[in-house]
Structure formats: C-alpha cells, structure tokens
Amino acid sequence: MALLQSRRLLAAPRLAAAAAASARASSWWSHVEMGPPDPILGVTEAFKRDTNSKKMNLGVGAYRDDNGKPYVLNCVRKAEAQIASKKMDKEYLPIAGLADFTRASAELALGENSEAFKSGRYVTVQGISGTGSLRIGANFLQRFFKSSRDVYLPKPSWGNHTPIFRDAGLQLQSYRYYDPKTCSLDFSGAMDDISKIPEKSIILLHACAHNPTGVDPRQEQWKELAAVVKKRNLLVYFDMAYQGFASGDINRDAWAVRHFIEQGINIVLAQSYAKNMGLYGERVGAFTVICSDAEEAKRVESQLKILIRPMYSNPPINGARIASLILNSPDLRKEWLVEVKSMADRIISMRTQLVSNLKKEGSSHNWQHITDQIGMFCFTGLKPEQVERLTKEFSIYMTKDGRISVAGVTSGNVGYLAHAIHQVTK
Amino acid sequence: MAASIFAAVPRAPPVAVFKLTADFREDGDARKVNLGVGAYRTDEGQPWVLPVVRKVEQMIANDASLNHEYLPILGLPEFRANASRIALGDDSPAIKENRIGSVQSLGGTGALRIGAEFLRRWYNGNNNTATPVYISSPSWENHNSVFVDAGFKDIRTYHYWDAAKRGLDLHGLLDDMEKAPEFSIFILHACAHNPTGTDPTPDEWKQIAAVMKRRFLFPFFDSAYQGFASGSLDKDAWAVRYFVSEGFELFCAQSFSKNFGLYNERVGNLTVVGKDADNVQRVLSQMEKIVRTTWSNPPSQGARIVATTLASPQLFAEWKDNVKTMADRVLLMRSELRSRLESLGTPGTWNHITEQIGMFSFTGLNPKQVEYMIKEKHIYLMASGRINMCGLTTKNLDYVAKSIHEAVTKIQ
C-alpha cells in the first residue's frame, strides 16, 4: 500500500483529482523512509542498557577526564565569568561572525609569522563547529570551483565527510590511506593514488589526529604529499579538528597546514574548537580560504556570506566569544595551552598504559600502533568478531571497525581493557 | 604561481538591510535615525536584553553541573517540546495525539532551511525540485534564497500587498492559490508579516485555509514574532493553530530572536505537525540526516535559556510580561506616529500605521521619497518604504514625522 501511494506521489503533478484525494487523505509523508539508525548511537544506547559495573563506552567522541567525566576547561570557566560580568547585548553578529574570533582563529592555524596571515590574503568566516565550517566550504567549492566536482577523501575518513560533500552537490572519491595489515599509514599507496588524481580535483586531508584511524603522516611524508599535490595542481581542503589536542603542541599539530601554504599551495581549511577547547555544544568553528591577495579575499568573503545567509543567517555568539577571549587574552591563552596539553598528555598516557598492560597480560601481538597513532581515536586492528566478544563478554563498547575512543580509557579501567583485549586476541 | 582558481569569483552585493545599518553607522549627523534592521530598541534607542533572560543566564552560569557537551542532533529535548507547545498551544490536539515533532534550529532561518531541504527531498515525490514554492509579494528577502539554495527550481510569488489600498490583497492571494498547481508549497507569515505588517484577519485566514485544503497546498508557516506582534502569545499563534485544527499537516519555523531578544544565540525551532506519530517519526529521522550535514547539532546556550524560562511558571510569566513591554512600546510608537502625521496634515491616509502589526510598517513611501529621507534627513529605511517601529523613540518621533511630511509633500 505504501509503495502504491509513493508511486502516485511520484507522478503527483499529473494526478487525477481522485487519486490526489486518496493520497491526501493519508499523510504527505507515507513514502518517507525511516532514516538508517546511527551506528555510534546504537553503541551508546546498548551501553546505557548494560548493567555490568565494569562496562566501558569507547565510542564516545568527546574528551573525558581520568574519572570518565566531561571536562570543562578552567580557561573556559574564567572566560565565561568575564563575559557574564560584562553584561553584553545580544545583537546579531555579522554574517561572517565575530571578527576578533575569526582573526585569532586564522592566526592560530596559520601562525603569527605567516606571510599569508600578515598580508591579509585570507578570509576566515565563523562556522558552526567543524561540520558547519566543512559544509560552508563544500558549498562554496560547489558554486565557485568549476574545475571539478570530485572530492578525494582518505580511506577511511570521518563518516560525516561523505554526506556533507554529497549534500553540497559534490562527488566522492578516495585515495588509499590506512593499511589494515600494519595499522599504520599506507604511504606508498597514498602517494600512488594521489599522483593519479585528475588535475584540479579537490583533495581532503586531515591536518592532524586522523579520524578514525589516529594515523598521521610524519613530517617528511607531509613534504612529499605537498609536492605531489602541488604537481597535480589539486585544491587542498584541510580538516583540522584537533589542533593542540593531538600532540599537545598547537604549532606542531598545524605543521602540515603551514607547510602546504609555505609551498605556495592556497588551501582551504575547516577548524573546530569542539575538542581542543571542550566547547562541543557551543558549535565553534571557522572556515578559511587562502587567496592570492587581500582583494580576492574580499570577493571570496562576500560570496561566503551569500551562502551563509540562507542557511542560518549569522552564527551563534556564545562559544565564539569564549574562544575569542581565550585566544586574545595572554593569560587565558597561556592557561589554555597548558590545559590542552594536559588533555593530549592524558590520552597519550592511556595509550602507553594500554600497551604496557597488554604486554603484562602476556600478549604476543605487536601493539605498537596504539602508541604510534595519535589523537582521540585508535584503530586497534580488532576484527568484528573480536569486537563482538568484547561487548558480549566484557561489556566493552566500540564500533565494529575496531575503533576505540582513547578518551574513554582511564587509569581505573585500562587494566580491564587490556585484559579483555588479550582474552579475545590470544 | 598559476592564476588563482578564485580569480573569477565576483564580488557579491551586500545584503541590503545590513548595508543600510553600515551606512547609518558611518553617518555623522546628530539627527540620524535607524529605521532599518529588525531588532527591538528601547525608548533610549538601545538594544534590550530581557530581564528574564539576564536572570536565567545567571542561573545557568551559577549551575556548576552544566557542561558544554554536544546536544542531540535534533536539539535540547526540553527546548524542543516547550517551543512547539508555545506555537501549538497547551491544549493542542496534535500534541495530545502525539503527532508533532520538533527540530531545534539556528534561528528562524535555520528552521526554514531544514524544512526546505526536507521538502525538496521528500515532499511531492522524491527529490522533486519542480514543486512550486510560493512566497508572498513582498516578503522577507531571505525566503527566496532559502528555497533556492535548498534546491527548488520554481519559486513564485503570490499576491499579498495591495499598494493602492495599503492593505491585504485577499482577492489576489486567493486567486493565486486557486491557480497554483496542486501540492504547491506556500510560505505563510504566522503573524506580523514582514515587511508589510499586514496580516489576514481570522475570517480571511479561514478562507485561505479552505482553498489550501481543497487544492492540496502545503502550509509552511514562518513564525518570527509570536507574542511580539499583539502582546499575546495565543493571539499571535491563532492562524497556525487554526490550520492544525483543520487537519493540515504543516511546518512552522519558529524564531526566538525577537520575542526572547536572543538574536545572536540563534534560537529557533521547526515544528512539524503530521497525521500520526509514525509519519512524524520517519520525518524526524530524515531531518536528522539533513541536520547532521548542515551543523551536526545545534548550539546549547540559547536553547537552555528558552527551555528554562518556558518550563518554569514564574519565569514564563516574567517572560510574557517582558514580551508585552516590547509589544506595547511598538504599539505606542505606532499611535504616536500616526497622530503626528494626521496633525501635520500629511497628504494621504495614515491609519495603516496603527492597523499594521509587529515590528514593521510599510509606510507607502516610494523609492524617491526614501532616498530623500536618507540623504536629506539622515533617516535610514528600506527602499521598499519599510520602517522598523522600534527605531522610533519619544525623542525622535517629531523629527521623523516632520521628515515624512516633507518627503511626501516635496517628492512625488
């Protein structure tokens, strides 16, 4: 019955009145399919239902402290208190967002000594965290980058990249990236594939802390990637969601972005402050286009605004004000750098402890990739059957691809995790 | 270095209403008045953060248990439920029958966009970009862009403003609806039509609903001024609720920018009313997918403020009082402006100033007269003759009235 109705609705413009009346008597939405369940949500739902006191949620994509609790940065609390005391008004932001924030965001990514930054040959607009920034950029490229409709993503990439670019009207391709045999970078495969990408296509690169694998190129490898990308004349789209959060050093994490620009590659860049400032729900992000000159930047900015206005008019202020205050106040900025390093250090320490605990358990496998990988996520190399056993027998929840969020590991449960992994892999 | 890929990107024209404010800011004349952009101002010409909002913000700031974790994709549950309840009414049959859904959005614009993207994908077939979308003539200029960017190819206007009689062209409107292809989408302003300030009466709404029902036209309400228009939440929601009571499935994009004064926090809600819970669930599941590629999940601060306020009887009462304060000041400025123009004997009739409702008034000034107002009198208003009543104060009423008088008598 539903199919019949949907066929009628498909031919709607030429429907006879009677058929229309029949379709209308039911709902307009009878033919709307149920959207597929979110795989990660499913993991969290199952985790919530589990009554095992030792249960672990390793699907969570947000930082947790060593007690497994969400962490609000002290510099954020301080910034919020300062903002509250100023009793500012709630007037609309400009379409491009809070200027103090966008300028500081560009400087954070590019570096204060960057020629591109100092010359003003860039435009940065405030975006709705990483997703919103990616989407604005994708829409901009769809409208103004006429050379190609193809966006090349690393294999694998963040699950949301594909639908974002698709909804923006672009097509998705991929290049080799992760080598499941070694749980590390398939560098020769990546170089091989990228060298064959048609000229003037769009290539997306994760600036640091690749999601979901945690596998990043080394600096020498980034140099080679920059060379081949330049040779193929590709438009480079950097996604930087973990600056500072990956290594603990904001400059180190932005090295690839800065290197590419120094090589004369005019990149576009999406930034997120969800993780590195813990501002997840405030939706703080930025989209940047490196241009030939400041005049071009003004033209590009005017077109970005034309894209933003019919999407949500202008961005939310709260998170941007917090981020701006932190980035622009010497004391708060210093404090932030310490805090983001401490978050990164805790993650790195959990990686180290997991590996040493696995050794203590007597595992004979090579777990080096766990400490070689960087950032919030780790591709353990576990197979679906092993993941299932971890869930069923040990109440440890992760996605089927063997990805764990290291943020969900604490000194209190890392031993249990190591024990469980050893049991399913020995 | 090779020529830039963006070398050919043209400079886009600035959004008119923001350009107006920019020009106003640069104007050094002491008499200047900004009757452009749509935000509330006090009688001192200042932005006004609602007292209840300041109070709730302090409560939120003092609550150490709150953090900045992600909201669910569809938004803060308490916000969604309360926001839709405000639009549909406590005793809404649709709520009782569990056939409503809500999507927290970035302002009214965001709600419109999510709704438009959904309709383009799922309404009247699958990905039917040819479904006609009707927007009132005139309307908020961003309506057009929202539906174009959502992928609709056939955007049309329906008659609305009758310039000669300075009122609603009901006959033209109904005629357009009779002639519209079945299943066309109509964007309806729930109250306080922007930019004309001219709303259909309840009886006129009934006629509109009857035609839309008979012709299978889809009602997409834009509700940006609930409470702000008349001072009464229920009165300003009458049209939306009437359509619901008539059995329509509809969308209502709500904005809390004006009635909560939360402009820059981007607080909006898309209310979905369907035939039954099952349909609404499937619709929401698809809207989730759209949200996920647009902003992933919405900002929490503004939604917390609204949810906290609406959920507390005392804060809710304070809020309604704050809203009435704003609405009353606008009504006062309307009556003061009208009486001055009539005292001055300004040519024409000026009852439309008090008959129109909400923030805006279509004065009837023509572009040349508007230019005179801006250039000679430093009074900034839109080329359409639209003025924001909130820009009027007891201090500038005389000057504005005299200037309008001059413009009308000197310029034809």
TrEMBL record, chain A:
Catalytic reactions on record: L-aspartate + 2-oxoglutarate = oxaloacetate + L-glutamate
UniProt keyword annotations, A-Z: Aminotransferase, Pyridoxal phosphate, Transferase
Coiled coil (UniProt feature): none
SUPFAM superfamilies tied to this protein: PLP-dependent transferases (SSF53383)
InterPro entries reported for this sequence: Aminotransferase_I/II_large, Asp_trans, NHTrfase_class1_PyrdxlP-BS, PyrdxlP-dep_Trfase, PyrdxlP-dep_Trfase_major, PyrdxlP-dep_Trfase_small
One Pfam family from the record: Aminotran_1_2
Subunit architecture: Homodimer.
UniProt miscellaneous comment: In eukaryotes there are cytoplasmic, mitochondrial and chloroplastic isozymes.
Protein name per the record: Aspartate aminotransferase
Organism expressing this protein natively: Apteryx mantelli (North Island brown kiwi)
UniProtKB/TrEMBL annotation, chain B:
Protein name, per record: Aspartate aminotransferase
Domain Aminotransferase class I/classII large: 31-404
Catalytic activity: (2S)-2-aminobutanoate + 2-oxoglutarate = 2-oxobutanoate + L-glutamate; L-cysteine + 2-oxoglutarate = 2-oxo-3-sulfanylpropanoate + L-glutamate; L-aspartate + 2-oxoglutarate = oxaloacetate + L-glutamate; 3-sulfino-L-alanine + 2-oxoglutarate = 3-sulfinopyruvate + L-glutamate
Molecular-function GO term, any one: transaminase activity
Database matches in Gene3D superfamilies: Aspartate Aminotransferase, domain 1, Type I PLP-dependent aspartate aminotransferase-like (Major domain)
Keywords: Amino-acid biosynthesis, Aminotransferase, Cytoplasm, Pyridoxal phosphate, Transferase
Names of the cofactor(s): pyridoxal 5'-phosphate
EC number from the UniProt entry: 2.6.1.1
Naturally occurring in which organism (per UniProt): Apteryx mantelli (North Island brown kiwi)
Record PANTHER family: ASPARTATE AMINOTRANSFERASE, ASPARTATE AMINOTRANSFERASE, CYTOPLASMIC
Enzyme class, first EC level, given as a word: transferase
Coiled coil: none
InterPro entries reported for this sequence: Aminotransferase_I/II_large (IPR004839), Asp_trans (IPR000796), NHTrfase_class1_PyrdxlP-BS (IPR004838), PyrdxlP-dep_Trfase (IPR015424), PyrdxlP-dep_Trfase_major (IPR015421), PyrdxlP-dep_Trfase_small (IPR015422)
Comment field (misc): In eukaryotes there are cytoplasmic, mitochondrial and chloroplastic isozymes.
Cellular localisation: Cytoplasm
Family per record: Belongs to the class-I pyridoxal-phosphate-dependent aminotransferase family.
Pfam family, one: Aminotran_1_2
Subunit-level organization: Homodimer.
